[in-house]
Amino acid sequence: MLSTVLSCARIVAHTFDLRISFEGAVARPGQFLHIKCGHSRLLRRPISLCGVEDRVARLVFAVKGDGTRWLAGRKPGDSLDVMGPLGNGFEPIDDAPVLLVGGGIGVPPLLFAAKAAKAETHALLGFRSSEHVCLASEFPSMTLFTDDGSAGIHGYPHNELMKLLDSGKWGSVFACGPHPLLRSAAKICAEAGVACFVSMEERMGCGTGACLVCACAVGGTYRRVCRDGPVFNAAEVNWNG
Predict the structure, then answer these.
(1) pLDDT by residue (tens digit) across 155-197?
(2) Relative orientation angle of helices 158-165 and 179-192, to the nearest 10 degrees
(3) Is residue 216 within 8 Å of residue 198, measured between CB atoms?
């Protein structure tokens, strides 16, 4: 599918906000687009959806290598070769209130989840420092954390998670971010008896499940992040695998 770039702008540090035309199927929070970046020898890059509205897809991503650097340089009117939406996304349980736990570039898909939710949400958002904070003000309700204390609360999102779960108010937790954050959120939710769903990040090749590059240990076997995930029940993930 060919999409047209509508805008692309740096929002903080090495993070960019890209808007493209989107004629694909109805997208769910947690799904991603697989985008061809640059010359044919470069693999596609999986970019989580930050939102889809009025046939416009929003992608917020960090520049980490040649592919995303090329993507950040696109101008309005440029064409992009896009596959998607792909993968399985976040699914609420019985329309109960949802806690969102995110870190860094794991925050964009949670914003999509917050805006799509039918029930109340509250986000616990962590960033390295004030210079890396993005999208936080767009959440309906959130608490901000930074590693160095330069903005919000000094600490990490999962430090507040147990306290909120003790209230018994929240039906489930959606988490996306660095592996240590996901692992901590999964442990805390298991102890509290609250369902936790995590978006796993692995290097991808084809994006459709054929190449097995993105396999991870889930449910006693190996599952493909691109096709079976990226969202999994945290209780089934082998966090030591």
Answers:
(1) 999 889 999 999 989 999 999 999 999 999 999 999 999 999 9
(2) 20
(3) no
